[in-house]
Amino acid sequence: MKSPPRGLAIDISSSVRRLSVSRALVRRAATAALRAEGVKDAMLSITFVSRATISHLNRRYLGHHGATDVISFGLGRVGRRGAVVGDVYICAEVARDNARRRGISAGEELLRLVVHGALHVLGYEHPVGEARATSHMWRKQERILARVL
User: Fold this and answer.
1) Are 13 and 49 contacting, i.e. CB atoms less than 8 angstroms apart?
2) How far, in Å, CA of 129 to CA of 144, rounded?
3) CB-based contact 8:31 (threshold 8 Å)
4) What's the burial of 89, exposed, middle or buried (CB within 10 Å: 0-12/13-18/19+)?
5) Which of 6, 13, 89, 90 is 20 to 30 A from 115, alpha carbon to alpha carbon?
6) What pTM was computed for the model?
7) Which residues of the chain carry a pLDDT beneath 50?
8) First-residue to last-residue Cα distance in the chain
């Protein structure tokens, strides 16, 4: 029996008409996050969705009401060295709002969310509230993002 191909398979899709970043940069950011953690095999889907869709996912799977910027589902590995499998959903509208508030480009914020989502797929967590921006995960995310930008 032939073994599946090894490597990083990153699928990018969007139901959003206008993204502020290219698919090539999205792929680069996801790849940087996976490689920073030593991942050699992964199947990762990144989907850009509307505010209504992210609100529905947030309510259905996390029990929270309203829109959020990113939701990730890490589907685990098959064995210790198996491929990382996960889905990342990003709301471009919320990302644009957050970018405006922070005084940065929407493209930078979208890439930050790609890295953030990939790290969640890999099992990283962060505290809620102000401590989020000083957490180990956030610092790692910002280092990876700096290499992408």
Assistant:
1) no
2) 22
3) yes
4) buried
5) 6
6) 0.91
7) 1-4
8) 42
